[in-house]
Structures
1.
Amino acid sequence: MSSAEKKLVRLIDDDPMVLKAMKSVLVEEGFEVKTYLTAEDFLTEDANSILGCLVLDLRMPNINGLQLQKILKEREFHHPVIFLTAHGEVESAVLAMKMGAVDFLQKPVSPPKLVETIRKACKLDETEQWESQDKRIELLKKLSPREKDVIVKVLQGLSNREAGESLGISEKTIENHRNNAYRKLNVKSFKELQKKYSFHF
């Protein structure tokens, strides 16, 4: 279906039969689906740049659902998270929602309910991504021409000294422009700058 086009649903559950059943329902609805038996596999393989959502089992060996949610928050994984559990733990549900989960479904969840929840989550992700991009464009407009020049050099991987030589200004001036640009763009590191703004230059 068109509403599911280019949306990736990531399913994590240590029960292969549950994964198979959910994947079958979602593929039939037109979603792209990737399944993972462990949180570790997901952290190693996932493509964070693809829009969609994450459906996550609460109880898993090693890294459980809430622990994974915390890790993803630290790694700036911005896609909506839906928790799925057979245990119906109210305290865990409340904690998951406080940490940003968009829904908490109890197993066995009906296919229509699963699909409806995932559609809403994917739509939310699409909206938030566009809003985020619009905000970044507005922040970029705050940069002076010289600050833009410096950020381009930084994104090319040049050091302050190399950027200064390239632009014909001192290393200290580069550092000042770089710090001002980071503040205006609301980033604290090169890694964050690269992730949020590299495609704008």
2.
Amino acid sequence: MVKRQTAIKIRKTHRYLGIFLGIQFLMWTISGMYFSWTDIDEIHGDHFKQMPPKATSFSNLLGTDSLNGVEGVASMELLEIAGQPYYWINGAQLFNAKTGEQKKSVSEEEALQVAADHMRPDLKVSSIVQINEVGPHHEYRGRPLPAYEISYATSEELKAYVALNNGAFQTVRHRDWRWFDFLWMTHTMDYQGRDDFNTLLLRGFSLLGLITVLSGFLLWFTSSPSVRKMVKQKNK
């Protein structure tokens, strides 16, 4: 049987680990419950969008040979900007698919039209601003910049984002998504950028959590009257 001093050490280890890890365990539990009880489509803001988005079919489009300044095509995407077709070539150049004219960026009015093609028609725009840089915790992190941030007059603090370079609709952000994002940060323990699931901090806390659970089992084993009785009977 485990000696009394050893049992005391196990109990202290379990107690202090529990105190140290308790808040993080609580955040893991709360965030896990939130993730399992929420509709991921609502978190993505699909209920604010036109599904599918409004789209136009185009004909008589130019071939890539008719575009000036294009030496080769590695990738190409057909985009609609304010009712006009555009080629987004090699992720860097934007050309009108009917005139061949190169376009450097989209205007606020064009960005609003792009957003209107993707968002519900009953939503009213309250403001539009251009953003050129964002921090690691910004809701638009990891996406093309510069971009237009379009705010809507809703209680959910709804915003849509349109890339300035090619007019592509990027994403929707709202209150429930921000709560999800905050809880995701506490779940992954990536307090720098929020999206790294392999942080040393998370690994360390996971290991300490395992030790806490194992020490709890060991503490139960060393202090259980039933186990002690079984050990005594075995030693007779």
3.
Amino acid sequence: MTLPLTPNTATAKPAPIALALAIIHRLERFPRGLDALLWRLAAATVFWRSGQTKVTGFHINDTTFDLFRDEYKVPLVPPEVAAVLASITENLCAVLLVVGLASRLSAGALFGMTLVIEIFVYPESWPDHLLWSAVLVPIILRGPGVLSLDHLVRRRLDPVAGHNL
């Protein structure tokens, strides 16, 4: 003898599975914004800390030029130029990421810098570079999120697309 299945018994799930699914459904409905803010802050922290070792106030340290000349030796770019570009890029892009302004451009610049560091300077540090890339690429591809100045600007310029930042 078989018991007829009612809609409630046919779809009933054990309590732990039902709880897990309920938690997953709630997490998936959470508005995107906090994750993007954390990506931006994580990337900004890494590059800000590095950029601050290269400068004193608004002046690039002499040791920074020595570092680019003697250790980094980036090809195709004179060490004096590379030192200035790297110092400005790390510090400026970190600040822009924190406030969420020109976020995709900033993340793209820092991602490019990460690739140069990986390929030409410290290829053995690929685990660090992979982590940096893991927080930069979502910003480039998906945007800075709703907790950013970019979102406000985009909403102003394109109200229909502004909600997708």
